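During the no-cost extension, the postdoctoral fellow (Dr. R.K.) reprocessed legacy sequence entries with the updated structure-token encoder. One reprocessed record is reproduced below for audit purposes.
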Amino acid sequence: MRRVGSLVSTFVAAVSSVAYAQQNIQQTVTVVGEAEPVALGQTARSVQVVDTQPMSLSLQEIADGLRSDASVDIQQRGAMGVQSDVSIRGGTFEQTLVLLNGFRINDAQASHFNLDVPVPQQAVAGLAVLHGSGSTLYGADALAGVVHVSTWKPQESSLRLRAGGGSFGSNEQAVTGALANQMRSLVVAGERDFSTGFIPGRDYRSESASAEGRTTSSLGESDLLLAGSDRSFGANQFYGNYNSWERTKGWFLGFTQAFREKTTAAVAYRRHADNYILIRTNPAYYANNHVDASWQGALRQTVTLGHAGKLFVGAEENTDSIHSNSLGQHGRNRTSLYGDADLHRGAANFSIGLRAEILSGGRVVSAPSFAASLMVHKVWKLRSSAGYGFRLPTYTNLYYNDPTTISNPSLKPETAWNFDGGVDWYPSTRVAASVTGFYARQENAIDYVRPSTTAKWQAKNLAEVRLTGVETSVQMRLQGDQQLRVNWTAIFGSQDVLQGQQSQLVFQFPTNRARAEAWLHAGSQVALRPAFSVTQRVGQTPYSTLDFAVSRDRGVLRPYVQGTNLYNTGYAEIQSIRMPGRGILAGIQIELSHR
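Re-encoded structure tokens follow.
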């Protein structure tokens, strides 16, 4: 399926039959980091895919689906997606590119809120994660990896009505309607979540809505997506010893047209506003108002190379701008040309690609990549990859100053080489295991550092950052469609580059993270999702969390109960910012469908 084009369609999440256990390595699915759908046994990159539609009553937010990957770090300042940032393999959230149906949604202002996805969760089909550099295919910001959020393409007409409530005065409502036939579909969705807060000054209200229409003609598939979000929340202690308040608004419009499976044109517009009040009870004392906008367009072509493979070429244009009372007015653009050759010979597969990105001012950045895999006896797959990534400083990095932070207009772009190698084992159609070693060599990594807790944070380029790690995963399909997944990731990085200073961003990653979760059934209609994780961050004490969800996944009336942090663990995903304790959310969904 090519909704955004041959290069970007790689991120459409795999069908649920391969969401966890890769039970058939010859089954063709869309895989992160490949230029088009391939058999699972052919991909040379370290990837994870999760189909979220069948488990929507077990997940409170998009981040819950990403947490199943131990190499993914979610840093939140609150529940239900309040200031959620995602990073991969020890990189910062600024080094992780987030895509929505192949379109970039990273924020030019700060790369903050990189999970501020405007589409309601029930309109999301799946998540896909690429570990390691993705700049060759997807451009700037993909130093450490890429997260793709794909929207739902319904196969039948349906209506879902959902309402629930629980701990901390939380309350949620959602509605999702779908009309579908063989040639076209329409999905309209809206959701609203709010809470009085688990501590004073940590209340929130989150609203989002989307409408997406698809139609197929003799030319190919047309896809139009319109989405928006409005999120306000108490930001008590988020940025220092202040009872702050913040509100973000996002708008997104994207259109994709495929032409006979060989050519794709795509264009999108994104606008994001951020209103920050330092002291909630005295808004006039200090406030920031930022509005950033971006346009992006792409044209992509697939060329068949006989029996040897395929060549994918494309051109992209990205522009962004910001209007801010504290950052000023700025703008920049990037023009990209890229190509990727996927070659096959027997049990061996190769991929080699190169992107040339022309930045404002005429500077050209080249991003090469290489990947290879080899199937041995149809059971073992050996794979390796190498890629170069880059990221421009955000407008906040360059121009933002406040009572605790100093910007740096002289910052250089970040760059990084990522290398990995691993082995996958498929002993049966129900079991898959993998081990991957990886190494990242970053130059001019952007961090905020300070010599002591009494000093201000100063934006600075770190000369070099070296990260080494290992990730392991075992996925099993149990009886029927029941699934079990256990994974562990360890990351090692020397802090000598800091020269004794404190780090705000770069050295906040988990040094160890292990997770086990299962999707089980009690009887024919009751779905269970237990999830247990242990996390240790740089210089911090390990902590564990236990989540559990139970729901009815069939019938018209579908009650659900979601429990988070059942151990009532005291922990922080961002240093010194306390996360909620034990929470229970319960509700019911009414689902009507018609083929």
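The helical segments are 62-66, 135-138, 395-399. The mean pLDDT is 87. The remaining legacy entries will be reprocessed before the final report is submitted.
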